[in-house]
Amino acid sequence: MVKSSKYKMAGGNGLFFPILGFASIVAFMYLSFGDLFSVNYKNEISLSFVGRNGSNFVVDDKLFYINGWNSYWFMDHAVHDHTRPRIRAMLQAAAKMGLTVCRTWAFNDGDYNALQISPGQFDERVFKALDFVIAEAREVGIRLLLSLVNNLDAYGGKTRYVKWAWSEGVGLSSSNDSFFYDPSIRIYFKNYVKVPSNSF
Ligand SMILES: *[C@@H]1O[C@H](CO)[C@@H](O)[C@H](O)[C@H]1NC(C)=O
Ligand SMILES: *[C@@H]1O[C@H](CO)[C@@H](O)[C@H](O)[C@H]1NC(C)=O
Question: From the CA of 176, how far away is ligand 2's center (Å)?
Answer without folding.
Answer: 6
